[in-house]
Design goal:
The protein contains 13 helices and 19 strands. The chain has helices at 4-9, 11-20, 28-65, 69-104, 143-149, 155-161, 171-190, 204-209, 235-240, 297-314, 361-366, 390-400, 411-417; strands spanning 125-130, 153-154, 168-169, 194-195, 201-202, 222-223, 228-230, 246-248, 254-263, 282-292, 319-323, 335-343, 348-357, 369-371, 378-379, 381-389, 402-403, 406-408, 421-422. It binds one RNA strand through helix 3 and helix 4.
Length: 423
RNA sequence: GGAGAGAUGGGUGAGAGGCUGAAACCAACGGUUUGCUAAACCGUCAUACGCUGUUAAGGUGUAUCGCGGGUUCGAAUCCCGCUCUCUCCGCCA
C-alpha cells in the first residue's frame, strides 16, 4: 500500500511511475486527494467538537464535586448538543475514510527508475546469462517422460489421492527433493540467513499483510471451517513475523530463510503449456526473506540476486536473469528479477525464481517499522526471493543432464542425494 | 469436544466511572559517579493522524487499555456481541 502523504507530495512522480506499471485508474488519484481534503476539514471539525466535549465533561466533574448541580445540568445540555452533531459527522467521516482507503489500495507499488518500460513478458530486460545451453543426444525426452521412465514422480497417483497438480514423488525422485531442500537451506544458512520453519496455514491478517488478501483470495486454498489459508509461499508467514512490530535500527537487516510446501489454486491458469512439473497446486520452495533499512534495500537486492545465481551455478544449470518490465511486475514489487533456467528438452526458459524489493509497500500494510537513532519511526523495506522453487529446477536438471545411460546428478548435490546417477 | 480464567505500553503487572495515556518493577536509552566492569543515583522512555511552526526545535488537539457496539455530561473501569489466549479434563502424533 502506498502512503497517501507521499502521493500528495510527489504527485507527478507518482503518476508517471504508475503509468509505467500500466495502471488504468490513475485519474482516481485526483479524486482521492479531493476526498482527502474533505476528510481533513471534516476531521478538524469533529476533533474540535470532541475537544470541547472533553473540556465540558471535565468541568462537569469539577462542578459536581463542588456541589454546583445546576451549573452542571446546563453544561450537560451543551454536551448533548455536541453529541447529536457528532453522530452524523462521524458517519460521514468514516465513509470518506473508507472511500479513500478503497481507492488507495487499488494502486500498485511504484516501480524503481531502472525498471524497463514495457507491458508484456517479451519486454523484460535480459540482464545476465550464464552457462551453455546443452545439446541433447538423439532420443532425449522431456521430463514428463523421464519421470515415468525412472519412476521418480507419479502424477496419476496424485490425481487419485488428491487431484491434478499434486504429484507423488517416489524413490530417487523423493530423495532428490529432500536433497535439494537441504542444499538450498544450507547455502542460505552459510550466507547468514536464519532458518525458520513456519506454520503452513495462516490467518487472514497475515494474508492481508503480504498482499494476498483481499485481491488474490482466489489463488489460495481456504480452510473455511477455521478461516485459515494454506500458504502460497513461505513469504507470507515469514514476513508476517514482523507485522505490527517496531524494530531497532541495529536489528536490520533481518535475514530469514524457510523451506515450505506452497499451495496455489492457480484458478483459471491451466493451459496447454503446463504439463508435468511446469505448474502445480503443491510444490516445494525455499524462500529467502529480508527486512531491511531503506538505505540498504537495493544493495541487499543485489546480494540476494547473487545468492540465487550462486545456487544455479552450483547446480550447473544455464540461466538468465530478467529485469521485469513495468507491465510484467507484480502488484507489490518495486523491482523484480526473474531467474529462468533453460530446459533443453522443452526448448524453453522456465521461471525458477523471482527476487524482489517491495520497498515499504508491504511494510506499510504490515505496520512494520524501525526506530532510527534520531527522528520518527520509519517503515522498513521488505525483500524476498525464491532460492529456489524446486519443480522447474528438477525439470531442467532431469532434461539437461539426461544421457543414454541415465541422469547425471550435479556434483554439489551428490553429497545430499547419496547417488550420482539416476538410472 | 466439556469446564473455568483472562486479554492494559517492549516485558511483568496495578487500576474497578472524572485526579489515568495509564502506578510500580524489569528491559532499553542518556547522564552522574568510576582505572575498567559492576553497583548506586538522576533523567528519558507508546503509536497514529491533525493543527500551529520555515518541510526545524517546540507547542497543541483527537484517537487508541483485544475488536465492535451500547449506557453516561464523562468509560481501561459498567452492559451486550465477537475474536483470541491460557489452565484443567477428554481425544490424539
Amino acid at each position: 500500500m502506498l502512503q497517501l502523504n507521499y502521493i500528495r507530495e510527489n504527485l507527478d512522480e507518482v503518476k508517471n511511475k504508475l503509468a509505467k506499471k500500466h495502471v488504468k485508474n490513475i485519474a482516481d488519484i485526483d479524486e482521492m486527494l479531493k476526498l482527502d481534503d474533505e476528510k481533513k476539514k471534516l476531521k478538524l471539525t469533529v476533533e474540535n467538537n470532541q475537544a470541547e466535549a472533553n473540556l465540558i465533561a471535565k468541568k462537569i466533574g469539577e462542578l459536581m464535586k463542588s456541589g454546583q448541580k445546576e451549573e452542571a445540568e446546563t453544561m450537560k445540555l451543551r454536551s448533548n448538543e455536541l453529541k447529536d452533531a457528532a453522530k452524523e459527522q462521524e458517519a460521514l467521516l468514516k465513509k470518506l475514510e473508507d472511500d479513500i482507503y478503497n481507492i488507495l489500495v487499488t494502486f500498485p507499488n511504484l516501480p524503481n527508475e531502472i525498471v524497463p518500460e514495457g507491458k508484456t513478458p517479451e519486454e523484460n530486460l535480459n540482464v545476465h546469462e550464464w552457462g551453455e545451453i546443452p545439446s541433447l543426444y538423439e532420443g532425449a525426452v522431456p521430463h514428463w517422460d523421464l519421470i515415468k521412465k525412472y519412476d521418480l514422480i507419479d502424477f496419476e497417483l496424485g490425481v487419485k489421492i488428491t487431484g491434478a497438480g499434486f504429484p507423488v514423488y517416489k524413490n530417487k525422485g523423493a530423495r532428490l527433493q529432500r536433497a535439494m531442500i537441504n542444499f538450498f537451506l544450507d547455502e542460505a544458512i552459510k550466507a547468514g540467513y536464519t532458518e525458520i520453519m513456519p506454520p503452513l496455514l495462516v490467518n487472514s491478517d497475515s494474508g492481508f499483510g503480504t498482499g494476498q488478501l483481499p485481491d488474490k483470495e482466489g489463488q489460495m486454498y481456504h480452510a473455511t471451517v477455521d478461516d485459515l489459508y494454506l500458504i502460497p509461499t513461505a513469504e507470507v508467514p515469514i514476513t508476517n513475523i514482523y507485522r505490527d512490530v517496531i524494530l531497532k535500527e541495529e536489528d536490520l537487516p533481518i535475514k530469514n530463510v524457510g523451506y515450505t510446501p506452497c499451495f496455489r489454486r492457480e484458478a483459471g491458469a491451466w493451459g496447454a503449456h503446463v504439463r508435468g512439473l511446469n505448474r502445480l497446486h503443491q510444490f516445494d520452495k525455499v524462500e529467502i526473506v529480508q527486512i531491511a533499512h531503506p538505505d540498504q534495500s537495493y544493495q541487499i537486492l543485489e546480494e540476494m540476486v547473487k545468492h540465487v545465481q550462486g545456487l544455479l551455478e552450483k547446480l550447473e544449470l544455464p540461466y538468465r536473469i530478467l529485469r521485469l518490465c513495468g507491465g510484467d511486475m507484480s502488484f507489490s514489487s518495486a523491482l523484480t528479477y526473474d531467474f529462468e533456467t533453460y530446459s533443453a528438452a522443452q526448448q524453453r526458459w522456465l521461471e525458477v525464481s523471482s527476487t524482489s524489493n517491495f520497498e515499504s509497500f508491504q511494510a506499510n500494510r504490515m505496520k512494520c517499522r524501525f526506530k532510527p537513532k534520531d527522528g520518527k519511526n520509519q517503515l522498513v523495506h521488505t525483500l524476498n526471493g525464491s532460492a529456489l522453487a524446486l519443480p522447474r529446477i528438477l525439470a531442467t536438471m532431469l532434461e539437461n543432464n539426461q544421457t543414454p545411460e541415465g541422469i547425471r546428478i550435479p556434483k554439489a548435490l551428490q553429497a545430499y542425494t547419496g547417488f550420482d546417477m539416476i538410472s
